[in-house]
Design brief:
Helix content is about 45%, strand content about 10%. The chain has about 240 residues and is α/β, with parallel strands linked by helices. It has a six-stranded parallel sheet with strand order 3-2-1-4-5-6, with helices on both faces. The longest helix has 18 residues, at about 40-60. The radius of gyration is 17 Å and the shape is globular.
Length: about 240
């Protein structure tokens, strides 16, 4: 199997293209400052990941910015801090402030010359539009949780994407799914029969904002960044 075997790359955004862990941690600082027992960065991110996943299961139709505000309230309760509605709303609106990884824009610009690039993201359209300004490419298609009415790893998100790409003439065998999260992306990509490339931003270290995945999960390629994937494709040429 070669990277150049596929005409379509479907990409997760947050954790893969956008450094959501740094963005989340920065956006949580006002809450952490009010708590005398705020955990370390990795522990806080793990608590965020658990709270976010639980909230997504409970309210799959909720717009992501509103869902994030509810996650903030959960973390405030866990850290023994009174809820602050202004801080919760600011946290929900923080997605556009989360930074892109340094390699993302250049790698996407290169890959756009060879692939149709498609986003499958667990956010709302308005939040993604703010992030897309940092990425600098025009995607062939953008599918968000707001469009689907559920959040990855729900299989509905992948079915939604595959149905629409089929309408554009692309079969599952045309697609390589590219993502950081084994839990949110590779497990459902496996179930959908898609080839996948793991962008291992944490360099093999577990934890952080991504919940643990089923040990049976597999992937076809592994790279430390999207830039490494682009360099591997260049080497194939």
């Amino acid at each position: 199997m070669r990277l150049s075997d596929f005409p379509v790359l479907t990409l997760d955004c947050y954790g893969t293209l956008i450094d959501w862990e740094s963005g989340i941690w920065q956006a949580l600082q006002p809450l952490a400052a009010r708590s005398g027992t705020a955990p370390s960065r990795d522990a806080a991110l793990a608590q965020f990941g658990a709270a976010e996943s639980a909230q997504e299961r409970e309210t799959p139709g909720l717009v992501y910015s509103t869902l994030l505000a509810r996650v903030h309230r959960r973390l405030a309760a866990a850290w023994g801090v009174a809820a602050d509605e202004a801080q919760a709303e600011a946290f929900g609106a923080s997605v556009g402030d989360w930074p892109a990884f340094a390699d993302s824009a250049a790698a996407l610009a290169y890959l756009a010359g060879f692939y149709k690039l498609v986003i499958l993201s667990n956010v709302d359209r308005a939040s993604f539009a703010l992030s897309n300004r940092k990425l600098g490419v025009d995607f062939f298609a953008i599918y968000t949780a707001e469009d689907v009415g559920s959040y990855k790893p729900d299989p509905r998100n992948f079915r939604f994407m595959l149905d629409r790409l089929a309408g554009a003439g692309h079969r599952p065998g045309d697609i390589l799914h590219v993502a950081q999260s084994l839990y949110h992306d590779h497990v459902p990509a496996n179930r959908a029969g898609l080839a996948s490339a793991w962008i291992d931003r944490r360099q093999g270290a577990g934890g952080g904002a991504t919940p643990p995945a089923d040990l049976s999960v597999h992937y076809d390629f592994r790279f430390g960044s999207l830039g490494e994937l682009a360099e591997a494709h260049r080497a194939e040429q």
